[in-house]
UniProtKB/TrEMBL annotation, chain A:
It comes from Bradyrhizobium centrolobii. One of its GO terms (molecular function) is oxidoreductase activity. Pfam families: adh_short (PF00106). SUPFAM superfamilies: NAD(P)-binding Rossmann-fold domains (SSF51735). This is Short-chain dehydrogenase. Keywords: Oxidoreductase.
Automatic annotation (TrEMBL), chain B:
This is Oxidoreductase. Keywords: FAD, Flavoprotein, Oxidoreductase. Residues 10-177 form the FAD-binding PCMH-type domain. It comes from the Bacteria.
């Protein structure tokens, strides 16, 4: 038996998921990658094995299929020490305004699914008395903005869930980390106009998550600049804020 | 369309950039338009990594497929960077056999340019350690090529500047090392003759390269510092030293384009004088240096290309056959020192035989210099090219942005053979870069 720790990455084929898996594998963790398409995950698992001489497995996980969650958790090769949810869907705000199906998918992908699956792991971890839960939320959840409030409100719900879970789980030896990446150069943001100094590479997010788990940080703004930006955005009076278009 | 340039920031041209996420999507990108080339990390200086119409960004393909620690054989996607390879496998006791002057190049780019390092005189170029290549051709096939299988395609792809197809994956061999340290010996040479003698004497060293002071004139012409190096064994390290030093991310960055007058004959001369004197003081004994400053001195300054200002710069790298090299190199250095604006990055080194059909190296001496783009620099470099051609030499395509067809054709006598292989892999001419338009392709009437 190996004495190494195991990390489960939900949304393992995303750019942030891949970078996070590499950061943990480099630090000596065995890795479980989970995502919708196992065939897409397998080359990344092989990459981790070849690079870092760790064990890496793949599992099918669909964040919208909540009925499958209990079977997913019990079907894992082992209960992980760390579970990280990187699942999310940016969607299109304009479409979400009139298309209920699209709005529902955004809300379920960013709030319902991630919250329910991490909640399940929290029960298992609390029963064991140890474990770390990481939810990748968003600065967009800090305040609903005209340009992306469907996505932002789902992330706000997820952040609130993580906050409450952290308060409860900390008494049972389980730590919860909320990560708010800000702009990241990934497939999800390809083609978007990102503000250079506020934008980071996926690798920076992966390293920040590992760091937060090792140091048991509660809430991580990957770039410190975002903490300041969001502080200003959060404190603007509503009368002024509603006139802003961003 | 996006404005794109190479590392030298000249020329800047429009191209569509595609970021396929699967090899199938690469195939569709190649089939979709006439005039596509793959781009790695954009470290070719001129127009080699820019498609005639569209450019396929390959850095997303950054997976290691398999690694065998018993043999050092590794299978990689083409977008893996050498820096990644060194950071990941260095601590496990493996390094690439060949590294160029920057570690921020992709595997695909290193193969396409058949890059050389400070060990070319004795160990050959990057292509020598490539066992096989997975290639997507313009004909629409995905083929595995090696010395045994489709060897024509293999030797055309090594050094073929991406023009035989898109390199998707490769199997290469890594060098087992005990440490990430180099035992370095510095030799000072007071003029060109001494420098060439010192390089000849350094033939037995695994690594050898000369930094040459292009501002020196008269009896000092060609004065140099020669850096010889060997991989240090574990027993050579002082107690408590890390066997593998960490490569720092570039800390210092050039944040803006400096005014193009920052580098002038006075600032360059002053810098070179200081650099030579400091180096000469270290000459004689040997000492340990981390592989990072030894192989990649400029990598510690990110975006150093901005030091030449917005107009960019040209790097001129030629190789002169051994026979008669002394006189030609003397003539070239004489002309450069008279001009006075060649920069501090002036390198003289011995090369051996290249492996690919279009590989740059041939047995002789290679001289590499940077020039800011201003005044009559293009005419001046044409003059230098005439000396190179007369001596039977050639220019390095990975650095080139401006040589003429005549210079290119004179320097690469195997060109017709390359063109025939390329034609068979890509009869419709799907794969074309700005460089191939400039130097290879039939001129459209």
């Amino acid at each position: 038996m190996t004495s190494r720790k195991t990390v489960l990455v939900l949304g393992g084929s995303s750019d942030i998921g891949r970078a996070t898996a590499r950061a943990f594998a480099k630090a000596g963790y065995d890795v479980q990658l989970a995502g919708r398409d196992v065939a897409v995950l397998e080359p990344d698992a092989a990459d981790l094995r070849a690079r870092y001489n760790v064990e890496a497995s793949v599992s099918k996980f669909d964040v919208l299929d909540t009925a499958s969650f209990e079977g997913f958790v019990s079907g894992l090769p082992a209960l992980p020490d760390v579970v990280i949810s990187i699942v999310g869907l940016l969607g299109t705000q304009e479409n979400a305004q009139g298309d209920l199906d699209h709005a529902t998918t955004i809300m379920r992908s960013n709030y319902e699914g991630p919250a329910l699956i991490l909640g399940l792991f929290a029960e298992k971890f609390l029963a064991r008395g140890s474990g770390t839960i990481v939810g990748v939320s968003s600065v967009a959840g800090d305040r609903g903005r005209a340009s992306n409030y469907v996505y932002g409100s789902a992330k706000a719900g997820f952040s609130a869930f993580l906050s409450g879970l952290r308060a409860r789980a900390s008494r049972g030896g389980v730590h919860v980390v909320t990560v708010k990446p800000g702009f990241v150069r990934t497939r999800m943001t390809e083609g978007m106009k990102l503000i250079g100094p506020l934008t980071v590479e996926a690798k920076v997010v992966g390293d920040a998550i590992l760091n937060a788990v090792q140091r048991r940080t509660d809430v991580v703004y990957v770039s410190g600049k975002w903490r300041l930006v969001m502080l200003i955005i959060k404190t603007l009076p509503e009368a002024i804020f509603k006139k802003l278009k961003f | 369309m996006t404005l794109v340039s190479g590392w030298g920031r000249f020329p800047v041209v429009d191209t569509d950039i595609l970021r396929p996420r699967s090899f199938e999507a690469v195939g569709e990108a190649v089939a979709g338009a006439s005039g596509t080339v793959a781009r790695g990390n954009g470290r070719a200086y001129g127009d080699a990594g820019i498609g005639a119409i569209r450019t396929i960004a390959m850095t997303g393909f950054d997976r290691v497929r398999s690694f065998d620690p018993a043999t050092g054989r590794i299978r990689l996607e083409a977008g893996v960077l050498l820096s990644d390879l060194i950071d990941t496998f260095g601590p496990r006791g493996f390094l690439p056999f060949v590294v160029p002057g920057t570690r921020f190049v992709s595997i695909g780019g290193a193969i396409a340019a058949d890059v050389h390092g400070k060990n070319h005189h004795c160990e050959g170029g990057f292509g020598r350690y490539v066992d096989s290549i997975l290639l997507r051709t313009g004909r629409g096939e995905t083929i595995e090529v090696s010395r045994e299988q489709d060897s024509d395609a293999f030797f055309a792809t090594v050094g073929g500047m991406g023009l035989t197809g898109v390199i998707l994956e490769a199997t290469i061999r890594l060098r087992p090392v005990e440490t990430g340290w180099i035992r370095e010996r510095v030799v000072s040479a007071s003029d060109l003759d001494a420098a060439m003698r010192a390089l000849d004497a350094g033939d037995s060293a695994t690594y050898s390269v000369a930094w040459i002071d292009c501002a020196a004139r008269g009896s000092d012409l060609g004065r140099s510092l020669i850096y010889l190096g060997e991989h240090a064994g574990r027993a050579e390290l002082p107690d408590g030293a890390d066997a593998f030093p960490l490569g720092k991310d570039p800390g210092l960055a050039v944040p803006v384009d400096l005014p193009s007058m920052t580098l002038n004959r006075y600032s360059i001369r002053a810098f070179n004088e200081l650099y030579y004197r400091m180096g000469a003081r270290r000459a004689g004994g040997s000492h340990l240096v981390s592989l990072f400053p030894y192989f990649f001195p400029l990598d510690s300054i990110s975006a150093w290309n901005r030091i030449y200002g917005r107009r960019g710069f040209l790097q001129h790298q030629c190789v002169i056959p051994e026979q008669g090299a002394r006189d030609v190199l003397g003539d070239i250095l004489e002309r450069i020192s008279r001009r006075g604006d060649a920069s501090f990055l002036a390198v003289l080194k011995k090369l051996g035989q290249g492996d690919g059909i279009l590989s740059f190296p041939l047995p002789g001496y290679t001289l590499a210099l940077d020039f800011p783009i201003r005044g009559d620099i293009l005419n001046f470099l044409d003059e230098i090219d005439r000396l190179v051609v007369t001596a039977g030499g050639r220019l390095y395509l990975a650095k080139d942005a401006r040589q003429s067809r005549a210079t290119f054709e004179a320097g690469y006598p195997a060109l017709q053979r390359f063109k025939a292989i390329r034609k068979s892999l890509d009869p419709a001419g799907k794969i074309r870069s700005r460089l191939s338009q400039r130097l290879f392709d039939e001129v459209q009437p």
